[in-house]
Amino acid sequence: MRIATFNINGIKARLPRLLEWLDETRPDIACLQEIKTSDDTFPVRDIEDVGYGAIWHGQKGFNGVAILARGETPVEVRRGLEGEPEDEHSRYLEADVKGLRVASIYLPNGNPQPGPKFDYKLRWMKRLRDRAAQIWAEEVPAILAGDYNVIPRDRDVYSVKAMAEDALMQPESRAAYRRLLGDGWTDAIASRHPAGRVWTYWDYQMNAWPRDAGFRIDHLLLSPAAADRLIDAQVDKDFRGREKASDHAPTWVELS
């Protein structure tokens, strides 16, 4: 079973690339981020036409997450995180699908830092950890998949110096991510590629893609019951090089 995460960077603008990827790779479950569309304009018919059911949590113009499943529709468990009732950003969606608990996550970027946006990022990570603990207590095979906007280790970035002041690499961001791992979640890509140098994102600017100047911010965290079934974890890097591609590449795990 293949479970993927893909920051699509605008589902309407990238719809041909999304449908192409679904058709060519046929993931069983796909978590999308930055769909950047309202609930009313989500292209559900196009997705159903290639054999996928979908649930989504949209927001016009930015943010937005979705969960797709081949041959069935995920059963929604939760949308949004508790802790800040005034937070209306569409960044979290959780569902039961194909015997797994799956969350699609679009964590705040946090730039510029320091400042309110960085403070919001850290609060959001604490809220995510609280929800992850609740999922853990259910003892279900679970995957927390998405764009975490955190570069966990120096080996996960093309240049430490270039990103040193970015919110994605601040000690507080990394510490919050490590706390999730310390709670017992497994970073699937890191477990399969301990030496690092595996990128999931390449900026549109500064010739980043041709230079392979990328970094890893798209993660799939596995509960113990899911980690025990882990066969492989990889990045569909070639899709980043296609015409009008997202700046992220699909990232996936395969479970027995």
Automatic annotation (TrEMBL):
<feature type="binding site">
    <location>
        <position position="147"/>
    </location>
    <ligand>
        <name>Mg(2+)</name>
    </ligand>
</feature>
<feature type="binding site">
    <location>
        <position position="247"/>
    </location>
    <ligand>
        <name>Mg(2+)</name>
    </ligand>
</feature>
<keyword id="KW-0464">Manganese</keyword>
<feature type="active site">
    <location>
        <position position="106"/>
    </location>
</feature>
<dbReference type="GO" id="GO:0046872">
    <property type="term" value="F:metal ion binding"/>
</dbReference>
<comment type="similarity">
    <text>Belongs to the DNA repair enzymes AP/ExoA family.</text>
</comment>
<feature type="domain" description="Endonuclease/exonuclease/phosphatase">
    <location>
        <begin position="4"/>
        <end position="248"/>
    </location>
</feature>
<keyword id="KW-0479">Metal-binding</keyword>
<feature type="active site" description="Proton acceptor">
    <location>
        <position position="248"/>
    </location>
</feature>
<dbReference type="InterPro" id="IPR005135">
    <property type="entry name" value="Endo/exonuclease/phosphatase"/>
</dbReference>
<dbReference type="InterPro" id="IPR036691">
    <property type="entry name" value="Endo/exonu/phosph_ase_sf"/>
</dbReference>
<dbReference type="GO" id="GO:0006281">
    <property type="term" value="P:DNA repair"/>
</dbReference>
<keyword id="KW-0460">Magnesium</keyword>
<feature type="binding site">
    <location>
        <position position="7"/>
    </location>
    <ligand>
        <name>Mg(2+)</name>
    </ligand>
</feature>
<feature type="active site" description="Proton donor/acceptor">
    <location>
        <position position="147"/>
    </location>
</feature>
<dbReference type="InterPro" id="IPR004808">
    <property type="entry name" value="AP_endonuc_1"/>
</dbReference>
<feature type="site" description="Transition state stabilizer">
    <location>
        <position position="149"/>
    </location>
</feature>
<dbReference type="InterPro" id="IPR037493">
    <property type="entry name" value="ExoIII-like"/>
</dbReference>
<feature type="site" description="Interaction with DNA substrate">
    <location>
        <position position="248"/>
    </location>
</feature>
<keyword id="KW-0378">Hydrolase</keyword>
<feature type="binding site">
    <location>
        <position position="149"/>
    </location>
    <ligand>
        <name>Mg(2+)</name>
    </ligand>
</feature>
<protein>
    <submittedName>
        <fullName>Exodeoxyribonuclease III</fullName>
        <ecNumber>3.1.11.2</ecNumber>
    </submittedName>
</protein>
<feature type="binding site">
    <location>
        <position position="248"/>
    </location>
    <ligand>
        <name>Mg(2+)</name>
    </ligand>
</feature>
<dbReference type="Pfam" id="PF03372">
    <property type="entry name" value="Exo_endo_phos"/>
</dbReference>
<feature type="binding site">
    <location>
        <position position="34"/>
    </location>
    <ligand>
        <name>Mg(2+)</name>
    </ligand>
</feature>
<dbReference type="GO" id="GO:0008311">
    <property type="term" value="F:double-stranded DNA 3'-5' DNA exonuclease activity"/>
</dbReference>
<feature type="site" description="Important for catalytic activity">
    <location>
        <position position="218"/>
    </location>
</feature>
